[in-house]
Amino acid sequence: MSVDPMTYEAQFFGFTPQTCMLRIYIAFQDYLFEVMQAVEQVILKKLDGIPDCDISPVQIRKCTEKFLCFMKGHFDNLFSKMEQLFLQLILRIPSNILLPEDKCKETPYSEEDFQHLQKEIEQLQ
After folding, report:
1. pLDDT, tens digit, for every residue of 11-29?
2. Does residue 75 lie within any of the structural domains?
3. What is the C-alpha to C-alpha distance for residues 2 and 83, in angstroms, rounded to an integer?
4. Does any domain span residue 67?
5. How many domains does the chain have?
6. Residue 31: burial class (beta carbons within 10 Å; 0-12, 13-18, 19+)
């Protein structure tokens, strides 16, 4: 996961892009586990229909776990690439874009404006 806090994006979206990516990662991983369980159940049902089968459910479980580790490794590799692209190209606000609440900061104050504001503050105090 990325270390950059992306606070401006969090201000705009209402969540951090990293949190979004983490939730996507967890959802994909959950679906991967569910699919692997379903595959295992189908294999076990098919083996029940085969007479004199020497393959035990424990062997099926070991093979399923091995395949799950293989799939998870490839998934993690692909997801890290996808995360980089999402955080760089999709969930990043370009530096030249201001949020509506920051439009007042778009025009810098001159020294005169600053002095005028300081005098106004002193009068109000």
Report:
1. 888 999 999 999 999 999 9
2. yes
3. 9
4. yes
5. 1
6. exposed
Tokens of 104: 């007042």
Rounded to whole angstroms, the Cα distance separating 53 from 43 reads 12
Cβ–Cβ under 8 Å, residues 21 and 87: yes
Q: Domain residues for 53? A: 7-95
> Stretch 83-100: mean pLDDT, rounded?
89
Contact 10, 16 (CB under 8 A): yes
Residue reference for tokens 């991983």:
29
Residue recorded with tokens 């091995």: 66
Residue with tokens 């104050």: 109
Q: Please report, as a single letter, which amino acid is at residue 9.
A: E
- Is residue 108 in some structural domain? no
Q: What confidence score (pLDDT) does residue 54 get?
A: 86
Each residue's pLDDT tens digit, 35-86 = 999 999 999 999 888 888 888 889 999 999 999 999 999 999 999 999 999 9
